[in-house]
Hints:
The protein is an all-alpha fold. The protein is 86% helix and 2% strand.
Amino acid sequence: MECAACLKFLTLISDFRGGFIVFGCFSPSFNFLWLFLLFAFGLKLLRSIDPRNGFSYRKGFDLAFHSKVASFRTKIDYVEEDERTECFAEEDDEFDVLALRRLVRNERRRAVGAQLELEKERMAAASAADEAMAMILRLQNEKSSSEMDAKQYRRVAEQKQEYDREVIQSLQWIIMKHEYERSLLEEKLELCRQQLQRCLRRDELEELDAALISLGSTSDCGLDEEDELKMGFASPAACVQTKVFQDGLWTE
């Protein structure tokens, strides 16, 4: 800075007319040449001085220059680090986006698979419900048909029981009638025997008894239905009303 002040002072002096002889005697071109020589001499002088014992302005300039270079380098490093972090962040973001897309794709596949499984389960449940409903309807039909058959068999059994009861009652009445007629015939036979005893002899009476006994045995073995009807001994089948089983009902 002192050298610059000296040069400025010399230029100011060269502008005046009453200065040194050198600046007053020559033209401006020679003044410019003179200033150039002085400037070269000053630079040579500065270079010949030891850097360790030189002027303080060079050291300050170097320190400022190095500090600016260091700050500039740190800024460059910061910028590069920011760019690198931004690049890494972008790569991380891209990786996260790809991972999220892959995760969403997997979740969609799982959801589609779950929907397919649910659809299969629903169809299986619907088919099972249809089968169960068909089985229930079939069982209800079988139950209704079984109930109808049971009612019909019960009605047939009741009619058969009623018919058997009527047959038994008719047979009992026939037996009672036969017993009554037999008692009447025995009484008549006893009266006839008493009358014959009065009229016939003993040997004739014995022959008549033997003939009656043989006649009774032959009549018991050889009488047909017409003779029994004529004699009043009708069979139970003739006295009971005949019934025919048609379509599950007994008809007369």
